[in-house]
Amino acid sequence: MQNLQTLLEQAVAQIGYELVDLEMSNRGKLLRLFIDKPGGINIDDCALVSEHISHFLAVEHDIDYD
Questions:
Q1: Chain centroid offset of residue 40 CA
Q2: pLDDT at 28 > cutoff 80
Q3: Least enclosed by CB within 10 Å: which of 42, 54, 57, 66?
Q4: How many Cβ atoms sit within 10 Å of the Cβ of residue 55?
Q5: Are 62 and 55 in contact (CB under 8 A)?
Q6: Residues 38, 21: Cα–Cα separation, whole Å
Q7: From CA 28, how far away is CA 18, in angstroms rounded?
């Protein structure tokens, strides 16, 4: 999971966020990210990061987390 965490830290940093924590459950089929940025997080931030990470994993690493 450390390698995945490093990849995700870099991916969220590219769009201006910090990965605070990462959880995997449901035998690795559920990925939960905890993010932060200066000024706080709102629902639009969550949607943006979710879309970015889904694309990042699917396109760049052939992992489907939709």
A1: 16
A2: no
A3: 66
A4: 12
A5: no
A6: 16
A7: 22
- For residue 49, give the nearest of 5, 9, 2, 4 by alpha carbon: 9
Average of per-residue pLDDT values in the chain? 87
H/E run at residue 19 = strand 18-25
Model pTM greater than 0.85? no
Q: Which amino acid is at 41?
A: I
Separation between Cα atoms, residue 24 and residue 31, nearest integer Å: 5
Q: Which secondary structure element, helix H or strand E, spans residue 11, and what is its range?
A: helix 2-14
* CA–CA dist 34, 56 (Å, integer): 17
Q: Are 40 and 19 contacting, i.e. CB atoms less than 8 angstroms apart?
A: no
By the 10 Å C-beta count (0-12 exposed, 13-18 middle, 19+ buried), 8 is classed as buried
